Amino acid sequence: MEATSGGRTLGGASRPPVAAERAAEVWWFDVREVTIAAEDLADLDVRETARATAFVFPADRHRYQVAHVMLRRVLAGHVGAEPGSLAFAREPCPTCGGPAGRPVLAGPPADGLSFSLAHSGDAVAIAVAGQPVGVDVERDPAGCVCSLATAMHPSDAALVAALPEPARHAAVIRWWVRAEAVLKCAGTGIGHGMDAFPVLGGPARTEISPGSGLAWEPRAAGWASAAGRVFAPLSAPKGYQAAIALPGLRLIRYRWGSARAPAPPPHPHTRR
User: Assign residue 266 a region: left if phi > 0, alpha if psi is -120 to 50, beta otherwise?
Assistant: First the structure.
């Protein structure tokens, strides 16, 4: 696998552990800069291979392959295993008990490591932490997305309705990435709705700042504090918005895919 930018091969030493429980590591990849080779695809399991094959458009297939190949490499660098040896499972959904809960590493190599994967357009985000974590990324809208306000918590919908366009469109995407990150962290996903809690501020707030460069809001009233999740906006590629959720989040370490991505160390080792 190679990054076309600068001609550097994506490989290298394993990453240090995510030592602090309230810290998260976030990897960014630009799918346009990654070339997937046959040996990389060999690391994918049967389900991943079938899913990739099912895509009609080559761009969609490539995005999926980059996301899942790099997820395996990032996680392999943390747990000291070969990327192709990693097995994935799903926890039960905490809301309905169904099989579509939070994705997890199966088996001893997981060693308490949690992860979350998101992709949109040409951007892939991978978050890794020592406790449940959720990440989401969305490309800035090309058209009107105001209809999504019907899926919001009423206080968020009121905040968005008061904004002029295009600030309203940016706020809708900001709401989406924050809400989905929290739901991924909780393990429920968006299938049970996204209107149970506000993420753009508490009911008493009457306005929000437009744009993606918002300050971290650990004290925003009414957001998913009952679930113990703190969310924060992420530094994202231009033209995208992203957010991360983690119980008690205090530190984010960024890794960019133009640098060397992790490869498994020569010998497995324990992380915790």
Answer: alpha
**Would you say residue 265 lies in a domain?**
no
Burial of 21 (C-beta count, 10 Å sphere; 0-12/13-18/19+) = middle
Q: For the whole model, what pTM was predicted?
A: 0.82
- Answer whether 200's CB lies under 8 Å from 156's CB: yes
Q: What is the pLDDT of residues 167-206, one digit of tens each?
A: 999 999 999 999 999 899 988 888 888 988 888 864 333 2
Q: Quick check: is 259 in a domain?
A: no
Q: How many CB atoms lie within 10 A of CB 37?
A: 10
| Strands ordered across the beta sheet of 134-139 | 134-139, 240-246, 230-233
C-alpha 95/C-alpha 108 separation (Å) is 26
Residue 105 belongs to some domain of the structure = yes
CATH at 61: 3.90.470.20
Q: Do residues 27 and 74 make contact, with C-beta atoms less than 8 angstroms apart? A: yes
The secondary structure of 42-62, three-state, reads: CCCCHHHHHHHHHCCCHHHHH
| Gap between the Cα atoms of 62 and 75, Å rounded | 20
Instruction: Tell me the three state secondary structure of residue 112.
Output: coil
Q: Does residue 267 fall inside a structural domain?
A: no
Count of domains observed in the chain: 1
